[in-house]
Design brief:
The structure holds two protein chains of two kinds. By secondary structure, chain A is α/β, with parallel strands linked by helices. Chain A has one domain: Rossmann fold (3-Layer(aba) Sandwich), CATH 3.40.50.620. Chain A has six helices and eleven strands. In chain A, helix 2 crosses helix 5 and helix 3 packs across helix 4. The longest helix of chain A has 17 residues. Chain A is globular, with a radius of gyration of 20 Å. Chain B is globular, with a radius of gyration of 24 Å. In chain B, helix 10 runs antiparallel to helix 11. The longest helix of chain B is centred in the middle third of the chain and has 35 residues. Classes of the chains: A alpha/beta, B alpha+beta. At the A-B interface, helix 2 and helix 5 of A face helix 2 and helix 4 of B. The complex binds flavin-adenine dinucleotide. Chain B: One of its GO terms (cellular component) is membrane. Chain B: Its cofactor is FAD.
Chain lengths: 249, 578
């Protein structure tokens, strides 16, 4: 099975985000970048499928030079090949990224395209759908279980309060959700092996896109915690506050 | 100059020579290795956050077997073993940085890996024959075999030369017969590969026999090897510490490590390089606790202010930063010295161990203080961190012994030059079990230098202070030698002060070099914080140095010794108010 996994490099979740002075971008100076956590599920799934059915796993990532370290992480987990689509930065408009990825994906004749359900930096959650459009393939998003028999895919999706099971056939696009699997940890052996793999660099002129980032702003300061009471009597008040003030339920 | 004579920055320092080419520019990790290391650090961090439960490890006093097994899979037992023996060939720098990252997650886990690689298998790596390496290193790299270092005995701790374990040659069988026991051996309960030091009678040129130490490879499968019960310890409870017994163990001749009778040198050189792992690890331990403490002081309010806003809390936080910055600068300057292979790093490695382990204890103690009563509760991790870090000033050479070593080895060079007492100093240094190659020839050919190369203008004050106090250390050492002569070996309080001054000087030069090199790379604008840290350390350091050096002449040592002797007679505190 010939599998492609599209991955993105994102800031570590523990990073304290600082903005540039003009608030147009994130200041990258002290940021630790990682492989997008949802993409790790995608890579793991690809590797498991490869181990079961034979085949090859290709990692594809678009972005500036620094993204090669995210590509290396995926290779270190066990992927076989990688393509780096060079770009000065990640485009503001996901459609631009999708167009470039699609162009590369078309060349590869992949049976299956995996990716994370979203990137944890810009949270657009659009890539699977955009690729589906570009490539005219079915896309299944928020997948927590995947079975492939011959050409037939059975995928379980997480939806509000339930699981939905859908079927489609290969080739297809699958967007991974947490729970799909337990990603393996890169071993030193894998890292050394990955070092020997040449990452194919692709120069490509990107479209302009229709979105523009006007401004970034810091989220409002979190207000201090509140103790409502220490017995069961406090539960109704707690529920009321969570509902009306915090607006989380 | 003979080829095993290697220059030592700190020995030269005592002699008034500033070998600044050994410390400038500040070393950088090889780019490819850095990438490998960062990927591994990231991977380990994920693994640890998912799987390692430090509270449970502490409570159950054991690292779960699955964790050990998975770490073997990750390759963590083979980091420093060269690739030709199926390891991953990390440099000392990358290895120590990895131990730092592992300690940040769990000190017991880090110690298990550290005892395996920093000391357990190090003698094989440094002194083993090709056959020995081929036979054992691949298994040690995968963790199929775990290693332990067996030196300490009930009667021989700091005075390691006093070991009693015996090795007797049986020429017919072609084996050494080993008898004795070792205590407090890290990995003692889980190891399969033991580097064991034992005494054997060896004839000198006249045919008289003397007991000399030799080093041996002993494996678990040899009949007569056994380990005692797990010790119940204050901290690092998850790491295995046991007695190891050797009862008529037959060790084939081919398992001799290094030359016959040269085992003591083997033991010491292993520790010289192994100490850096401990030093680096300690930094990781602080990192973790500091994060927890920072979370607390930025949330908790008293007197309607966050704790972090109070000046006395700021003082603690900044002191931790200054001390960590200095210790870190010293450590990774020294690991690079080890990696380049042509420098004598024995004093620097002792300095790093002392500095880091003391900064570790103080910083974690201050973190606990910052969070107040909560820090004392077993529910929170602060107390565990304090317990875990407490061992560090004790093992791999106590900080007292290492200070004496630094001072005496530093002065010895000058002593040789003064042609009076150099030889006399050799004995106690040997007795401390810390052999070193002499670099006298190296220094004699150099004129006393009082200046180091120019540095960035923002660091000139620190540089001038370094030069000034380096000169003063040299003068003080000279005065001490002339004043006490051979008797300096009994003046431990004086030696300690010289050692303290030397440690601070090494800290100064390491931070100056690091920041100067960083400014060259990034520009002054982007290094403001580092400049501040470097200058803050230098200001604190030279004041400590001044105090230490003044007190080599003027002190109350005599009174203190008399008080101690009185107390020793009384064996208690005999005073009470009327
Ligand atoms: C948890 C743990 C793990 C260990 N792991 C290992 C291991 O894997 N392998 C191994 O071989 N050993 C190991 N050790 C032993 C350790 O290295 C020794 O404990 C250490 O060397 C000190 O020896 P000692 O405990 O006998 O103390 P002592 O030598 O009795 O010293 C007691 C005190 O006296 C001081 N002192 C001694 N001599 C002098 C002097 N001349 N001048 C001034 N002060 C002096 C010391 O600094 C110390 O403060 C371990 C110990 C512990 C606690």
């Amino acid at each position: 099975m010939n599998i492609a996994v599209c991955v993105k490099q994102v800031p570590d979740t523990e990073t304290r985000i600082k903005l540039t002075d003009d608030h147009k971008a994130v200041n990258e100076d002290d940021i630790n970048f990682i492989l997008n956590p949802y993409d790790e599920f995608a890579v793991e799934e690809a590797l498991q499928l490869k181990e079961k059915n034979d085949g090859e796993v290709t990692i594809i990532s678009l972005g500036p030079d620094r993204v090669t370290s995210a590509i290396r992480s995926a290779l270190a987990m066990g992927a076989d090949k990688a393509i780096h689509i060079k770009a000065e930065q990640h485009p503001a408009d996901p459609a631009v990224t999708a167009e470039a990825l699609a162009a590369v994906l078309k060349e590869g004749n992949y049976d299956l395209i995996l990716l994370g359900k979203q990137a944890i930096d810009d949270d657009h959650t659009q890539m699977a759908s955009l690729l589906a459009e570009e490539l005219d393939l079915p896309a299944v998003t928020v997948v927590i279980k995947l079975d492939i028999e011959g050409d037939k895919i059975t995928a379980e999706r997480e939806i509000d309060g339930a699981h939905e099971v859908v079927e489609c056939s290969l080739p297809a696009i699958i967007a991974a959700q947490r729970g799909l699997n337990e990603p393996r940890y890169a071993s030193l052996k894998g890292i050394m092996r990955a070092k020997k793999i040449q990452i194919e660099a692709k120069e490509m002129s990107l479209a302009d896109g229709q979105l523009e980032i006007v401004e970034f702003n810091y989220p409002p300061q979190k207000s201090a915690g509140k103790i409502v009471g220490d017995s069961a009597d406090a539960v109704p008040e707690l529920l009321r506050l969570l509902h009306e003030e915090a607006k989380v339920i | 100059m003979s080829k095993n004579v290697k220059p030592s920055f700190s020995k030269a320092l005592f002699s008034g020579v500033l070998l600044d080419e050994l410390v400038f520019p500040y070393p950088e990790m090889d780019k490819e290795e850095k990438e490998n290391f960062e990927l591994m650090r990231e991977s380990f961090k994920k693994f640890a956050q998912d799987k390692i439960d430090s509270e449970k490890i502490d409570k159950e006093a054991q690292i779960p077997q699955e964790i050990i097994d998975e770490m073997k899979e990750l390759g963590l037992f083979g980091m420093i073993i060269p690739e030709e023996y199926d390891g991953f060939g990390f440099s000392t720098t990358a290895y120590v940085k990895m131990l730092e990252a592992v300690t940040e997650q769990d000190p017991s886990v880090a110690l298990t890996l550290g005892a395996h690689q920093s000391i357990g298998l190090k003698a094989l790596l440094m002194f083993g024959t090709e056959e020995q390496k081929k036979k054992y290193l691949p298994k040690l790299a995968t963790g199929e075999m775990i290693a332990a270092y067996c030196l300490t005995e009930p009667g021989a701790g700091s005075d390691a030369a006093g070991i009693k374990t015996r090795a007797v040659r049986d020429e017919k069988k072609g084996v050494y017969v080993l008898n004795g026991s070792k205590i407090w051996i890290t990995n003692g309960g889980i190891a399969d590969f033991f580097t064991v030091f034992a005494k054997e009678p060896i004839a000198d040129t006249k045919g008289d026999e003397h007991d000399k130490i030799s080093a041996f490879i002993v494996t678990r499968d040899m009949p007569g090897v056994s380990s005692g019960k797990e010790e119940d310890k204050l901290g690092i409870k998850g790491s295995s510490t046991t007695e190891v017994f050797f009862d008529n163990v037959e060790v084939p001749f081919e398992n001799l490590l290094g030359q016959r009778g040269k085992g003591f040198k083997v033991a010491m050189e292993v520790l010289n390089s192994g100490r850096l792992g401990l030093a680096g690890g300690t930094l990781g331990g602080i990192r973790k606790v500091l994060k927890d403490a920072m979370d607390h002081i930025t949330q908790r309010e008293q007197f309607r202010k966050k704790l972090a806003e109070f000046e006395l809390i700021k003082k603690k936080v900044s002191q931790i930063a200054v001390d960590m910055f200095a210790a870190e600068s010293m450590i990774y300057l020294t690991t690079a010295m080890i990696d380049r292979g042509d420098v004598d790093y024995s004093l620097e490695s002792a300095m790093c161990k002392i500095k880091a382990t003391e900064v570790g204890w103080e910083s974690i103690n201050e973190c606990l203080q910052m969070v107040g009563g909560l820090g004392y509760m077993n529910e929170y991790p602060f107390q565990r961190a304090l317990r875990d870090v407490r061992i560090n000033p004790i093992f791999e050479g106590t900080n007292e012994i290492l200070r004496l070593f630094i001072a005496l080895a530093g002065m010895q060079e000058r002593g040789e030059y003064l042609k009076k007492i150099g030889g006399a100093l050799k004995d106690p240094i040997k007795g401390f079990g810390l052999l070193t190659d002499y670099a006298t020839e190296w220094v004699v050919n150099r004129v006393t230098t009082e200046r180091i190369r120019d540095v960035h203008p923002s660091l000139t004050k620190a540089k001038a202070d370094f030069e000034n106090w380096a000169k003063n250390l040299h003068f003080a050492a000279e005065r001490v030698l002339i004043h006490y002569g051979k008797n300096i070996i009994y003046r431990e309080m004086v030696s300690e002060r010289l050692a303290n001054a030397a440690i601070d000087l090494y800290g100064m030069i390491a931070t100056i070099s690091r920041v100067d090199t960083l400014i060259k790379k990034k520009g002054e604008e982007k290094c403001q914080r580092e400049i501040q840290l470097c200058n803050a350390f230098a200001e604190q350091a030279w004041r400590r140095i001044r105090r230490n050096l003044l007190m080599t002449d003027k002190n109350i040592d005599k009174d203190l010794k008399e008080i101690a002797e009185f107390m020793t007679e009384e064996k208690q505190y005999p005073f009470e108010t009327e």
